[in-house]
Amino acid sequence: MDEYGEWHVGDPIGFGNDVGSPEVPYMGYGPKKREEKDYGASPEEIERNRKDNTSRTLRNEAERLYDAGRYSEALTLINVAIENVSTNANNWNIKGNILDHLGNYEEAIPCYDKALELNSDDVIKHNKAATLVSNAYRLFLLGDIDGSCLNLGEAFKIFDGIDDKRCLDQAWDLRAQIFIRNGDYGKAFECYKHALEAVKNDEKLRSEYMQKRDGLLKYLDNEDGTTCPKCGNLVPITDNFCIRCGARVKHEYKNKKSESRSLYSDGVTIINFDDDI
Ligand SMILES: [Zn+2]
User: Fold this and answer.
1) Residue 69 lies in a domain
2) What is the distance in A from the centroid of ligand 1 to the CA of 249?
3) How far apart are the CA of 234 and the centre of ligand 1, in A?
4) How far is ligand 1, taken at its centre, from the CA of residue 224, in Å?
5) Strand ranges (DSSP E) for 147-243?
6) Which of 19, 53, 217, 241 is 20 to 30 A off residue 62, Cα-Cα?
């Protein structure tokens, strides 16, 4: 490459022989292409444009590798993209997605935070919520219940503010498992009701959560339900509303006194969630 020319994609002379070969673009040597905005720009602006272009090219390539499941290579490229432009929300969002797929949730979350500082976008918010749920599962399996609850609580807060509820059912499922661990079967039962609401269009998941929910009935004393405060109808604990008058019914769950309980009530920390379920 010299001062006057460079190689670039396409036919610089205009014979049209770059047409019709989509897989391998024709490379031509010709006068250096300048971005329109480079004319009359200061050296700093030209340098910034150059970095913007480099960052964009690397990001596109990182996305391509990400889509192909080549996460480690994608990570290398997006890191260089960020070295060039650290103020692009997409760069950080994609880095978060790559780290999430590598199972590195703890590093993915601050990437989404950086992305959200630059652009408070619902897609990025959802990505962060989904990663928080994955991290909560990871910590739960490691026995770090407090850490798991912190991540879960943050995820629920995000889900409250966005329309995309994918993964919300998994959050409820995990919260139920934490309650079960603490011997709080009534609250776990309520969690599965929420999980069911979150997957109302997915028959397979619905029956899965229904099974988990109803599996808890053997630990609960009030299987018959609660009397509707408005009309006296008996509302089964699987329902949140009275079928006769439509009143909302809050069930008071009591654990059954049974040997199976002692399996769970083994002195684990009592978890307090912010919201009332
Ligand atoms: Zn009623």
Assistant:
1) no
2) 8
3) 8
4) 15
5) 226-227, 234-235
6) 19
